[in-house]
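Why does this matter for the project? Reviewers at the last site visit asked to see concrete outputs rather than summary tables. In response, this paragraph embeds two records directly. Each consists of the residue sequence and, immediately after it, the corresponding structure tokens. Nothing has been edited or filtered.
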Amino acid sequence: MVKRIQWWQILLVFVAIILIVCVGGILRVTLATSGTAYYHKGDTEISIKLSQSDVNALRESLAVDNYRVVGFGTGFARCGFTENCYVRFGGLTFMMGKDDCPSVHIKELNLTYSITREGNDALRSLLTQYGFSFPYGYDTE
């Protein structure tokens, strides 16, 4: 006799997969010791290797603001996320919006979440030291 799969069993597997991916991502970010940052706008293209202290500062800046997930996909926030401006460490790519909204999109998880205004300011201040310019603007890709 063939047993039918119940809807709750499918839901349970889906939730387990999401938890494994998210927890794995959090551990990779927590244990990261180095990373990269990339910026491209017009004639300006910057690619840098981040130091341990930079990664530590970014980890604090990118902390979730009271676990406020904006949504899955880049369309949930009006920030204009782009691969032309990101930081990458722990195997995850954190894309920043073109304006100064305090949200970040994680490319690999297709997840957008809010960071604190202070974290957003600290993130952009750190990257400005390397020649990044904010707000990123909407005039170029």
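We now turn to the second protein, recorded in exactly the same manner.
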Amino acid sequence: MSQSMTRFLAVAAIFWLGSVFCQSQALSTVEKKAQVDVFGAYTVTAPDYGEPKLNGFTAGGGYFLNFRRLGSPGLSARYAYGAGPVVNQSFFGGGVEWRFPFRRIRPYVTAGYGLGKMTIKSYSDSGPGSMIGGGIDVTVRPKFALRGEFMQQWIAFSGSPQLSYSPVSGSIGLVYTIR
């Protein structure tokens, strides 16, 4: 074999090995370290007093960190309101939310504390409360996702007699990613 042919094969082998062991760009070169979301949703609440269901809304937002394998932990705040002919209830609270993104689907769990208020005709009372729930976001556009959510709240009222209230709610809405 001639010397020029040997050089050619050596250079070709180097390029071939380089292409085998070097990866081309399969992932985005820019990855978000954090994300800010806001959401709004139609909410149906099943209060444990009075009416079978309340129609209302839930709105809120959150700040989330992005860790590839550990999911996206973050802090979130929300306001929920439900109204009916006899009972109205609201809850404002905040807490932690942990997302587990997988392609276009983003299941999550959330838990926190806040303040709940219930009005029954002319009687109104409020007190501290806690919430726990979860849901799923499905990305439909780069900055938009559809949301389905389930939430359980426990509220201890301050009035006499000591009452507690534990509404359950389900929501369907839209999430917008600000950044």
